[in-house]
Task: inverse folding
């Protein structure tokens, strides 16, 4: 049964749900290691390259994350930094040659910034990579509960992330970010990798994307800390 929104879950009538959701956070860290154990690395966010252009056309990542460009067309494509044809805005972001059909090229973005790019072979095909430093949402009991509610609601509605997002945005402004972060965390656990969750974040409302991406980005550092 679907809930009546984040505010209701965090209100006095929903105190029990809030406590259960907070416990869910602790339980999550018990099973999430097993869910990700088969991953050799974090992989990268995939951008599909077709005759129509780049899909998704705009993505948001953190410094040190990798984007994989997969050429699904039967012609070569050459994603590279603006400006055309010199690619000087981010000169390292350039494979120096076309990506052949059914092959891929990956690039790790180290520099924060808004990096626009294009297909050197077809300059009218354009895209954008937004590389932002990690942010944080506030702590405290209500934030932890909102995070747990986001996880719990996502767990119950895995096939309807839009509904989960609407539940998160029904709460107070300070609760929305933690709730969206919780839904993203559960999504990572369910899929056992970061890629699907990054795609999930690209589909969120603009005001919720930052919290979603920040939650996904936390995983490489989180698991490094837990394995040490």
Result:
């Amino acid at each position: 049964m679907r809930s009546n929104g984040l505010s209701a879950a965090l209100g006095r009538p929903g105190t029990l749900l809030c406590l259960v959701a907070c416990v869910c956070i602790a339980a999550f860290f018990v099973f999430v290691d097993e869910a990700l154990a088969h991953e050799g690395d974090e992989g990268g966010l995939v951008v599909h390259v077709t005759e129509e252009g780049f899909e998704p056309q705009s993505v948001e990542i953190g410094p040190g994350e990798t984007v994989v460009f997969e050429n699904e067309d039967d012609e070569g494509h050459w994603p590279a930094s603006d400006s055309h044809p010199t690619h000087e805005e981010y000169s390292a972001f350039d494979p120096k040659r076309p990506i052949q059909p059914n092959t891929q090229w990956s690039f790790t973005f180290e520099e924060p910034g808004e990096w626009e790019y294009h297909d050197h072979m077809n300059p009218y095909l354009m895209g954008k990579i937004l590389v932002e430093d990690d942010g944080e949402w506030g702590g405290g009991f209500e934030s932890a509960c909102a995070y747990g509610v986001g996880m719990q609601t996502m767990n119950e509605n895995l096939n309807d992330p839009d509904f989960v997002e609407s539940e998160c945005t029904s709460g107070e402004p300070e609760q929305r970010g933690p709730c969206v972060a919780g839904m993203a965390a559960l999504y990572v656990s369910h899929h056992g990798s970061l890629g699907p969750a990054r795609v999930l974040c690209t589909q969120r409302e603009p005001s919720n994307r930052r919290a979603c991406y920040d939650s996904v980005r936390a995983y490489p550092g989180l698991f490094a800390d837990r394995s040490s």
About this structure: The chain has two domains: 6-39+135-227, 45-131.
